[in-house]
Amino acid sequence: MVEDAPVALEARHLTKRFGHLYANHDVSIQVRRGEILGLLGENGAGKSTLVKMLFGLYQPDEGEILINDEIVHLRDSGDAIRRGVGMVHQHFQLVPVFTVAENIMLGDESTRAGLLDEGAAALRIRELATRFGLQVDPSALVEDLPVGTQQRVEILKTLYRRADILILDEPTAVLTPTETDELLKVLRELAEQGAAIVFITHKLREAIAACDTITVLRAGQVVGTTTPQETDRAGLANMMVGRSVVLQVDKGEAHPADVVLDVAGLEVDDDRGHRAVAGLDLDVRAGEIVGVAGVEGNGQRELVEAIAGMRKTHGGSIRFKGQRLDGQRAHAVNRMGVSHIPEDREKHGFIGMYSVASNFVLERFDEPPYARGVVRDFGAVEAHAAEMVERFDVRPRNIDRPMESLSGGNKQKVIVARELTQDAELVIAAQPTRGVDVGSIEFIHRQLVEQRDRGVAVLLVSAELDEILALSDRVAVIYEGRIQAVMPVAEATRERIGLLMAGDQA
Amino acid sequence: MSASPQRKKIVLALAPVVAVIIVAYLFYFFNSEVKTGAVLNGTFRDSTPLVLAALCGLLGERTGIVNIGIEGQLLMSAFTGFYVAAATGSIWTGVLAGALSGALLGVFLALCAVTWKIDQIIAGTVINIFVAGLTSFLYAQGKTLTGSLPQIEIPLLRDIPLIGRAVFENTPIAYLAIILVVVLHVGLFHTRWGLRSRAVGEHPNAADSLGINVGLKRYVNTALAGGLAGLGGAFLSLEAVGTFERGMSAQRGFTALAIMIFGRWKPFLAWAGALFFAFTSALARQLQFDQVIDVPPQFINILPYVLVIVVLALFAGRVRPPAAAGKPFVRE
């Protein structure tokens, strides 16, 4: 039935160049009413450029855009909005200190006698919210809302403007698995009510679960269009990177030696002062990867931060080769031989305004060879950085650019490169591949395994069960701040771990 | 749910006002009515340029432009206002010229900040230095004004004891400043213009993605804000003193920035802050005049600043400026 529905949005042979680089080359896509089109591709494949053209933020150099079978020239986002196109940006475009209603009506305000009429806006918002299952309180301040709810506000913003063509740019990148499921349900509901939806992602599982049609982009070109019925994850991954991706990590037998990290009876509070880690025991040996699996919010973050010296502990002990880590500051922990790939890379992983080169030596900048006395040696810093960007394939190679100008995948590569080249004896990797493209995921995984083979103890915390199962030698399941069970990966079936993650003893 | 923070805000706003009234009353009680009247008169007169300058600052920052050139805008408009009034013989033309010169400097600031994306602190400093030099250079002695702005007396209200004559026997710009406080409050928080302006100051990318012209909004609001400071400057030379002197803005532009922060970028709170500061200055002047306290005048003159620091420390708590203030807008 979707096949007979009218085409809502079509791109024909779009080309966009930046300088002499093709960001998009002869790209054609179409999406019908009631259809969810998945736009799949690695970071830098040209997905964002494409949707920016569809939303009027970029003008194509060649080709044409059709909305409801009519050729349109979109000069700015206002043009696109007027024609019923709505976009949910990857980074939310919400004013944190405004209420939900203020955010939604901004630019399309209801007024009465010249004054804002928030009541009228709230009424319409509630109507839309009920119709599409997007419950939200119009008078709440956006900054107080969880990420998933903020995204609902973004979707409501487009619906408020009567958009019936929705473009979502990596909407699941910031969501928890539960929130993702809810979002996918909402999208299906919207499609059933006649909307045409373009859903951008680099997560294969979501593309297969949520989309009717999937168009894969690579290096600015369309590689192919398929449907979930015709393909599977391996097939999509091949299309995305143009070669076979090892979703299964290639690794040999582990040779665990002495215990490097020994956590016993650990107690840690979360930001609100609630006990998040409650009597946790865990050990990691040299030469093995221990994966901590669990639903997010069960104390993983607090555990990692406590080990890394970023959070106060309230009981128990953390020992690294017999020395106490608890009570030490982050820098001291690092100097003792513990590397940390933080979960929130934007916040704890780098300094955005500093150059890529400086970010490579964040923990070492004041020591030889990167400093002589109190004077930094930029020559040494740059030489180091130049070597690192080659070795870890950081793109672009320019080490003078501010760190914040890099893509998410490349930022993560810089952090991984920095943390894994310190000759640490313990590596804590928290969500090491979150928001990173397939090629980089594979690379980071190989690096972690290499560390293990060199005799480093690796503690891996990840929300992606696939990642845990692919990398770990032993799997520990965390639930409500405690380790439910630890098992060799051979005994860790999805079913068993699923039960443990939900709190059942299995 | 929202009632208690709302109430807290009102209490915070009223606290300095109440404090002023209490102190004024005590002063009245221990002194004579004449002296108290003089202090209160001074309070309202001094508060006018301060509140106008603070409104200039907060309107700019609400839209994302940090304006430390207020000092220069005050001085320029005091200069322009006075000499235009002296040349044309019309005080009103002088006021208008003063406001326009402030607005013009606002446009210049926007040109630096929006079009050229120059650091806004540097742009503001440029304004201050440029104006200080220019007005000193062009300063000419011996000009006088013919007449001054009329006092407007509001009947009945002016008969209220103590504050009646201080508040309701004032010059037009003083009344206008109070009206502008209300207008700016309603404008910022209850109109489309205000919602969009604040969005531009908090999250310009969000505003941009909804088709709002960020640059234009910043230009217009910075110019309007400059006009407010310009009124304040014109008040300085045409109403308060009746002459122009070199450097006569006397750091009021920077004081206004402190008042803006104290007022949390809200017009009414800024007004309360301006009144409070002006009251302490007026009080210090009176104490000095009466030689009540036998200390060198320099120490009495620092009283307002010390009190502002104390009050800021006690009441400021966590202040949060508009998120995008001072940052040039670059489309993502």
Tell me about the largest β-sheet of chain B. 2 strands, antiparallel
Class by SSE composition of chain B? mainly alpha
Terminal CA distance of chain B: 36 Å
The chain-level mean pLDDT of chain A equals: 89
**Low-confidence parts of chain A, pLDDT < 50 over ≥5 residues?**
none
Structural class of chain A: alpha/beta
Distance between the termini of chain A: 45 Å
Gyration radius of chain A (Cα, Å) is 24 Å
**Strand ordering within the main sheet of chain A:** 6-9-10-3-11-12
**Number of discrete domains of chain B:** 1
Silhouette of chain A: globular
Question: Based on the structure, what is the oligomeric state of the protein chains?
Answer: heterodimer
Strand order of the largest sheet of chain B: 1-2
User: Can you tell me the CATH class of chain B?
Assistant: Mainly Alpha
Helix count of chain A?
17
Tell me the major beta sheet of chain A: 6 strands, mixed
Features:
heterodimer; A: 506 residues; alpha/beta; six-stranded mixed sheet; 17 helices; globular; B: 332 residues; mainly alpha; ABC transporter involved in vitamin B12 uptake, BtuC; 14 helices; 1% strand
Question: What is the fold's blueprint, element by element?
Answer:
The complex is a heterodimer of chains A (506) and B (332).
Chain A (H helix, E strand, L loop, with lengths): L6 E12 L2 E12 L3 E5 L6 H8 L7 E6 L2 E3 L4 H6 L2 E4 L11 H6 L5 E2 L2 E2 L1 H15 L14 H14 L4 E5 L7 H16 L3 E6 L2 H7 L2 E6 L2 E6 L6 H9 L17 E11 L5 E11 L3 E5 L6 H8 L5 E8 L2 E2 L5 H7 L1 E4 L3 H5 L6 H4 L11 E2 L2 E2 L1 H14 L16 H13 L5 E5 L7 H16 L3 E5 L3 H7 L2 E6 L2 E7 L5 H8 L5
Parallel strand pairs in A: 3-10, 3-11, 6-9, 9-10, 15-22, 15-23, 18-21, 21-22
Antiparallel strand pairs in A: 1-2, 1-4, 4-5, 7-8, 11-12, 13-14, 13-16, 16-17, 19-20, 23-24
Helix pairs in contact in A: 14-15
Chain B lengths: L2 H28 L2 H30 L7 H19 L2 H25 L4 H19 L13 E2 L10 H5 E2 L1 H19 L1 H11 L1 H6 L4 H28 L10 H11 L4 H24 L6 H5 L1 H13 L17
Antiparallel strand pairs in B: 1-2
Helix pairs in contact in B: 1-2, 1-12, 2-7, 2-10, 2-11, 2-12, 3-4, 3-5, 3-10, 3-11, 4-5, 4-10, 7-8, 11-12, 12-14
